[in-house]
Amino acid sequence: MDSKLPPGLLIIIFVLVSLQSYMFASPEFDYVFRYLEAEQIGAIVSEQEKKAAWKTAQLQHICESEEKMCQRNLRVEKMKSELLNLQIQLHDKTPSGGTPPDNERVRRSVIGNIYVINLDKEVINK
């Protein structure tokens, strides 16, 4: 080795390099390295758990919203069916030559039922 460094400095550099090699080869360094590696893995896992919890909450909200919408649609379909049945009853109970008081009584009965159904519909939409 052709160097212009004084021999004492070369010995110091050699000792430092040897010490550094010894440090990286020591069991303590291995423990420190494993600890740091475990901390990094733990941080990654923690972030993934947070993301999974957020996604689970979002999916739960979507499922609940879908269930509410489905129940609402079923109630609306039931009301439509009831209205159709009332229209059929009105048509069946109103003879073409019936007396006006009978027709008026049936009409009021059907209108009252439709009013109740409309009130139910307003409650459902709230």
Automatic annotation (TrEMBL):
| Cellular component, GO annotation | membrane
One GO MF term attached to the UniProt entry: mechanosensitive monoatomic ion channel activity
Signal peptide positions are: 1-25
Does the UniProt entry include the keyword Chaperone? Answer: no
Residue stretches spanning the membrane: none
Per the record, the domain of life is Eukaryota
Q: Does the keyword Signal apply?
A: yes
Q: Which keywords does this chain's UniProt record carry?
A: Signal
Q: Which GO terms describe its biological process?
A: cellular response to mechanical stimulus; detection of mechanical stimulus; regulation of membrane potential
Name under which the protein is recorded: Ion channel
Please name the source species: Lithospermum erythrorhizon (Purple gromwell)
Give the taxonomic lineage as stored in the record: Eukaryota, Viridiplantae, Streptophyta, Embryophyta, Tracheophyta
